[in-house]
Design brief:
It is built from 15 helices and 14 strands. By secondary structure, the chain is of the alpha/beta class. It folds into two domains: about 200 residues, Rossmann fold, CATH 3.40.50; about 220 residues, Rossmann fold (3-Layer(aba) Sandwich), CATH 3.40.50. α1 packs across α3, α4 runs parallel beside α5 and α9 runs parallel beside α12. The longest helix is centred in the middle third of the chain and has 31 residues. The chain binds uridine-5'-diphosphate-xylopyranose (UDX).
């Protein structure tokens, strides 16, 4: 098929490369000239395993990039994969998405016949009905359900395994409001995945499809927050949450995944999506108690970590090491990273913070230019009066004699990644 993908960020680039790999002809559209030039040269700016080899293999053949939205008119369907940043109150700012919808609408205005637009960006149902569809209709002069089709097809890609997640998803959610042509086009597009991997397809309404994405992420975030809440209780009673969670996970109804208790969740999705869902609920005069609690517990975890440091050391004027800055291992992404409130809390206490991360230091230095960045965990620990482990980089599990160089060997582990050893005062956050 001939597919266009508007937006060449993290999701859009993954989509474009993976659709090319499934055998489709893909046109990637982005307003940023440099992004387009790099894609056409077979390069990306995104750290994602498996993505660069695909982009370089297909660039110039089945994957073409352009800044010109007019190109979408020559394709069978267009994905909108434009970022939807959060506003201060947690609600999302759909202006980039609407600008893209307008450009796409104008591009297909003169197209004879049907064109399908598929919303990939994460937005609440009202944004689709009240803003995206009217924008597309107005710009194209076409009517939804007639010569214009609009479908909602959310993504569930994790950073660091986005390509694998695309190629073998747990489900494909297609919201069409019963538009048979939209359904047929998307079924044909995903056919290689559906037939090769037996991926279940969920055919539903557009509003439901949009909500599934929020509900999915909120459930996962709340699952982690619940194990953290239980973990805080366990810690007060000297109980190891990880042993409790392992047994809980054996219950099929609970499941073993996402029960790693610690300093909480970050990233580009969980913080933003929980906040947007809460903001939307509140505008509808519903106060979502569970969503509120999930967010609140996530805010509490870094404070509890700081509280444990306080129990052992008065950090004012002292060197304190922060191990890990990325929101999870395997990425340089610091969005929503729990390292930020930990650093802020240490700064408030007057500590001299020295941080180490194998990938994310440069990004953190843009937001926190006033702390020291070490080139290794050993360098960060050298002379420190306390250390906090915030990201579960596997290499941190190997740290051993490095702790001997601390001025005061105290470590508070927020991710159960540090190995205990003789002479080290070790505090697990929830164990
Ligand atoms: C998440 C969803 O998994 C994905 O489906 C969605 O499309 C985007 O958001 P991602 O943000 O890449 O993906 O990271 P994920 O691996 O889910 O982890 C999110 C956060 O939760 C990380 O900060 C991680 O450290 C934390 N986490 C995860 C825990 O604290 N405990 C766990 O058991 C699992």
């Amino acid at each position: 098929m001939n597919v266009s993908v508007v937006g060449s960020g993290y999701v859009g680039t993954t989509l474009a490369a993976c659709f090319a790999d499934l055998g489709h002809d893909v046109t990637a559209v982005d307003i940023d000239k440099e992004t387009v030039e790099r894609l056409n040269a077979g390069e990306t700016t995104i750290h994602e395993p498996g993505l660069d080899p695909m982009v370089s293999a297909y660039a110039g053949s089945s994957l073409q990039a352009t800044t010109d939205h007019a190109a979408v008119a020559d394709t069978d369907l267009t994905f909108l994969a434009v970022g939807t940043p959060a506003r201060r109150d947690g609600s999302i700012d759909p202006s980039g998405l609407l600008a893209a919808a307008e450009d796409v609408g104008e591009a297909i205005a003169d197209k004879d016949g049907y064109h399908l637009v598929v919303v990939k960006s994460t937005v609440l149902p009202d944004v689709i009905d009240d803003e995206v569809i009217p924008t597309l209709e107005e710009a194209s002069g076409k009517t939804d359900g007639e010569k214009l089709g609009v479908a909602v097809n959310p993504e569930f890609l994790r950073e660091g395994s986005a390509v694998d997640d695309f190629m073998s998803p747990d489900k494909i959610v297609i919201g069409t409001d019963g538009d048979g042509r939209a359904l047929d086009l998307l079924a044909e597009l995903y056919q290689p995945l559906i037939s090769d991997w037996d991926v279940p397809t969920v055919e539903t309404g557009r509003r439901e499809a949009a909500m599934i994405k929020y509900a999915n992420n909120t459930f996962l975030a709340a699952k982690i927050s619940l194990i953290n809440d239980l973990g805080n209780i366990c810690k007060e009673f000297g109980v190891d949450t990880y042993e409790v969670a392992e047994a809980m996970g054996m219950d099929d109804r609970i499941g073993e995944k996402f029960l790693n208790s610690g300093v909480g969740w970050g990233g580009s999705c969980f913080p933003k999506d929980t906040a947007a869902l809460r903001a939307a609920a509140q505008t509808a005069n519903y106060d979502p108690a569970m969503v509120n609690a999930a967010i609140e517990i996530n805010d509490v975890q870094p404070q509890r970590l700081l509280g444990l440091i306080d129990e052992h050391v008065d950090v004012e004027g002292k060197r304190v090491a922060v191990l890990g800055l990325a929101f999870k291992p395997g990425t340089d992404d610091i969005r929503g990273s729990r390292a930020k409130p930990v650093i802020e809390g240490l700064q408030d206490r007057g500590a001299d913070v020295v941080a180490y991360d194998p990938l994310a230091a440069d990004k953190m230095a843009e937001e926190f230019p006033n702390i020291e960045y070490a080139d290794s965990a050993a360098e960060a620990l050298d002379g420190a009066h306390a250390a906090a482990a915030v990201t579960d980089w596997p290499a941190f599990a190997e740290l051993n004699t490095e702790f001997d160089e601390m001025a005061n060997p105290v470590v508070v582990d927020g991710r159960r990644i540090i190995s205990r050893r003789e002479g080290l005062t070790y505090e697990g956050l929830t164990w």
